[in-house]
Specification:
Blueprint: E1 5-9, H1 15-24, E2 30-34, H2 46-61, E3 67-70, H3 73-86, E4 91-92, H4 95-105, E5 110-115, H5 117-122, H6 124-132, E6 137-142, H7 146-152, H8 158-167, E7 178-181, H9 190-197, E8 202-205, H10 207-221, E9 234-237, H11 241-252, E10 259-261
Parallel strand pairs: 1-2, 1-3, 2-9, 3-4, 5-6, 5-7, 7-8, 9-10
Helix pairs in contact: 1-10, 2-3, 4-6, 4-10
The protein binds D-glutamic acid (DGL).
Length: 265
């Protein structure tokens, strides 16, 4: 079935998940919405994040997607269940996938969760991690400066390195062997984060596991695209198209992308 897969995020973060889906499922078309005008979602109320997430899902429903990936941990934490219950297509989040990736990798069961304030406050990672292994010791850390850094496009220089080191300071003297990048923006900062926590620590995102979940879900429903389909991805941003374009084209390495401005209501 050659209908598109919908992917949503508060901004460019979900592109880290979209990239893994493109890698694993090269015949699938992705329709992506980044709510860049209202990013970050991290400090917003649950109700507000739920409303915005619903608006994105509704906009993609009109474009006849065959499934939806909430490629945003903050939105997954507050809107996954209600969307799963009410949308006419399957809906996947990223939190269970992230927790699974960590539990597969950790040896000492000491796991740091880096995420937005909203995700940390929701306790969704604790729940997901403990449901997989009850003896996991979890160290949650909100990093509110990281998303604005990525969205500004200024995430490569010295200033970024300093800001990241500062944000990770509370991890000093803590014992852990695995870090979950529990915000889909953070894989864009992965190298800098790895440099701070050291090379003995596994730094993981939910992207790969989520892409596996997408494949399984489509296969299960018999809705995978035909093997000869050439994908025609479309991207929509609620804010500046040029800034979205520069980050998306740099991250996805797919040449010029089809990106349009969208208004959500
Ligand atoms: N990328 C998002 C996440 O995974 C949201 C970041 C934000 O808007 O604060 O949580």
């Amino acid at each position: 079935m050659n209908a598109p897969i919908g992917v949503i995020d508060s901004g460019v973060g979900g592109l880290t998940v979209a990239k893994e889906i493109m890698k694993r499922l090269p015949n699938e078309t992705i329709y992506y919405i980044g709510d860049t005008a209202r990013c970050p979602y991290g400090p917003r109320s649950r109700q507000e994040v739920r409303n915005f997430t619903w608006q994105m899902a509704k906009a993609l429903e009109k474009l006849n997607i065959k499934m939806l990936v909430i490629a945003c941990n903050t939105a997954t934490a507050v809107a996954l269940e209600s969307l799963q219950r009410n949308m006419p297509f399957p809906v996947l989040g990223v939190i269970n996938a992230g927790a699974r990736a960590a539990v597969k990798k950790t040896k000492r069961h000491e796991v740091v969760v880096l995420a937005t304030e909203g995700t940390i406050k929701s306790g969704a990672y604790e729940e997901a991690l403990l449901s997989l292994n009850t003896s996991t010791h979890i160290i949650p850390l909100a990093c509110p400066t990281f998303v604005p850094l990525v969205e500004s496009g200024e995430y490569k220089g010295d200033f970024a390195t300093k800001l990241i080191a500062e944000g990770l300071k509370p991890l000093k003297n803590q014992q852990f062997d695995t870090v979950i990048l529990g915000c889909t923006h953070y894989p864009i900062l992965q190298k800098q984060i790895e440099a701070v926590v050291g090379e003995d620590v596994n730094v993981l995102s939910s992207a790969e596991e989520t892409a596996k979940d997408v494949q399984e879900m489509l296969a299960f429903n018999g809705t995978l695209a035909n093997a000869y389909t050439v994908p025609a991805h479309k991207f929509f941003a609620t804010g500046s198209v040029p800034i979205f374009r520069s980050i998306a084209e740099n991250w996805l390495e797919q040449g010029t992308l089809d990106i349009k401005r969208i208004t959500l209501k």
